[in-house]
Design brief:
With 324 residues, the chain is mainly alpha-helical. The chain has 13 helices and 2 strands. It is globular and about 55 Å long.
Length: 324
């Protein structure tokens, strides 16, 4: 426990000091990384702790982002107050979407969740009277915005967005840590390790898995809300199908679970496509080598997923077994 607290304190110090030597555009980019960090926490909850792979979290981010955008732009709600609403709406959608998935697991569950990511952009375009269709919803210049162009507490606009996003991100990490240390977390791990043994011990498997899916979707909703606040604009193009795949790749690349791993995964989501774009003759804006690269990376990570999970669990068990 002391070691975890020490790592968490180090992470907090690094996060607090990081934006000051950076330029304004780079600080805003790292605020976006913070939003992806929260979404990856949700993917981690299902992947490492529930033993299920989600390919739909980009869709839940869209739900959270559009909740914030609609309330801020059309209903006069201060953007900060929309963050809990985004979590509630996305969590509710997650609970509804998770009901059909209670009877399946593994690859079938992953494919079922992928339907959410596929349906999200089309649905957002279809209900254009609510979502603005392909035009999206612009938040910049609204009186309900906090900080854009003005800054808050003596911070620049970018520093304010960075502070907001990462403060919420650290809070989400701590809440998730407490949840996993509770009896619910133990029940979730029991279901992951052996559904038959968990049922014999009196664990309600469907309720536990559904609750985990709802919490995971709520985290993605918070991430989408913060992304909308950071960018001050949302559209279906902000949440393409690939986003859900990138979040999974970022989660697995971060080795599921540690705060540093989630930060690494979020950086990967934000910057990997740009790094691929530096390769000569690679255009990341259309199908081609970049798409093939991401697809090949996803397939490789999915094939390696069982080994990664077993290795992470073995390391965790050795850490718990080590005398203090």
């Amino acid at each position: 426990m002391r070691q975890k607290l020490a790592w968490l304190a180090l992470a907090a110090i690094v996060l607090a000091a990081l934006p000051f030597p950076l330029s304004e555009p780079h600080t805003v980019e790292l605020a976006t990384v913070g939003a992806y960090f929260i979404a990856i926490l949700g993917v981690d909850l299902l992947g490492r702790h529930a033993g299920e792979v989600s390919l739909g979290h980009g869709g839940f981010m869209a739900v959270g982002a559009y909740t914030t955008a609609t309330l801020t732009a059309d209903h006069g709600v201060r953007d900060l107050w929309t963050i809990p609403a985004a979590a509630a709406v996305a969590g509710g959608v997650g609970l509804l979407a998770g009901l059909p998935g209670l009877r399946v697991s593994g690859l079938s569950f992953a494919l079922a969740s992928f339907g959410i990511a596929v349906a999200a952009p089309t649905t957002l375009r279809r209900f254009d009277h609510l979502t603005g269709g392909s035009r999206g919803i612009a938040l910049f210049g609204k009186s309900t915005q906090t900080g854009h162009g003005l800054g808050v507490l003596g911070l620049t606009n970018g520093q304010w967005l960075y502070a907001l996003t990462w403060t919420v991100g650290v809070a989400c990490f701590l809440v998730l840590w407490a949840i996993l240390a509770s009896s619910f977390g133990r029940s979730l791990h029991a279901v992951r390790d052996s559904e038959l043994a968990a049922a014999a011990a009196g664990v309600n498997r469907p309720a536990v898995k559904l609750a985990a899916f709802g919490i995971s979707a709520a985290l993605a909703g918070i991430a989408g809300s913060l992304l909308a606040i950071d960018v001050a604009y949302v559209s279906p193009h902000t949440f393409p199908i690939q986003l859900s795949l990138y979040l999974l790749v970022g989660s697995v690349a971060g080795l599921y679970g540690s705060i540093w791993g989630a930060v690494l995964g979020a950086l990967l989501v934000q910057y990997l496509s740009r790094l691929v774009g530096l390769v000569p003759h690679v255009d990341t804006s259309r199908a081609g080598p970049a798409t093939f690269f991401f697809g090949a990376t996803l397939v490789a990570l999915m094939l390696a997923l069982p080994l990664v999970l077993r290795s992470a669990d073995a390391i965790a068990r050795r850490g718990h077994a080590r005398p203090h």
